[in-house]
Amino acid sequence: MTTARLIREARRSAGLSQRALASRAGVAQPALADIERAIHDTRVGTAARLLRAAGCKLFVLPTTRTAASSWADTIHTQLRSTQRNESTAFRAVIGLSDDLAAAEPAERVALCLTPPAPCGDPRFDAAVAAVVEHHLTTDGLPVPDWVHEPWRSLSEPWEATPHLGGDEVPDAFLRHGVLLARSELASA
User: Fold this and answer.
1) How many Å apart are CA 53 and CA 149, to the nearest integer?
2) How far apart are CA 29 and CA 19, in angstroms?
3) Distance of alpha carbon 125 from alpha carbon 64, whole angstroms
4) Which of 79, 104, 96 is nearest to 134 (CA)?
5) What residues pair up with 159 in beta bridges, in sequence order?
6) Could you tell me the pTM of the whole model?
7) Within its chain, how far is the Cα of 112 from the centroid?
């Protein structure tokens, strides 16, 4: 993950504007904007200060997999693009599922600790939470509190897999109102 993405995710997860985070961290807002757009790389000390101002700490996780919060940021980017690419956003949900399925248990928990910022569409917020809950509960792993936030579940179910037929929808998905067939949870 790039420093730009890490800082943007932390800021969005904390619900802060660039101006608010820059003020808290003692950094000029235009400099923060450049950091988030990866125009300028930043030193570790500056990155750590920005993350602290967003309520986070900097840790390194030796992995090639992507964290749930990063997948949510990818979904957010796809949904706010001019094409509003829901199909690519949905593939990111499956990418999250693939990463969690392939991770060792401790790594899987670590990849889910940071609360994802809103994706910009309640259906995808619920899908991210459902994927995380599904992959953690499968092995009896602890589920972070953010997964159970009420806004991460749908009141009206979303039929993410058209024509489910007899295919089973995992319990975590049912709890979040996302009707996604178990067979759809992995890339082909």
Assistant:
1) 23
2) 5
3) 23
4) 96
5) 179
6) 0.76
7) 8
Query: For every residue of 156-179, which 3-state class applies, written as one string?
Result: CCEECCCCCCCCCCCHHHHHHCEE
To which residue do tokens 């986070």 refer?
56
26 in helix, strand or coil? coil
DSSP string, 51-92: HHHTT--------SS--HHHHHHHHHHHHHSTT--HHHHHHH
Position 85 scores a pLDDT of 78
Encode pLDDT of 21-60 as tens digits: 999 999 889 988 888 888 877 888 888 888 889 887 777 7
Q: Which residues, in sequence order, are CB contacts of 62 under 8 Å at separation 6+?
A: none
Backbone angles phi, psi at 121, to 5 degrees: -155, 120
> How far is CA 121 from each of CA 12, 69, 115, rounded to the nearest angstrom?
15, 15, 16
Residues in Cβ contact with 172 at an 8 Å cutoff, skipping those fewer than 6 apart: 130, 131, 133, 134, 137
Residue 3 — φ and ψ, nearest 5°? -60, -40
**Tens of pLDDT, residues 146-184:** 999 999 999 999 998 776 665 689 999 999 999 998 888
> Two tokens at 174?
């049912």
CB 156 within 8 A of CB 125: no
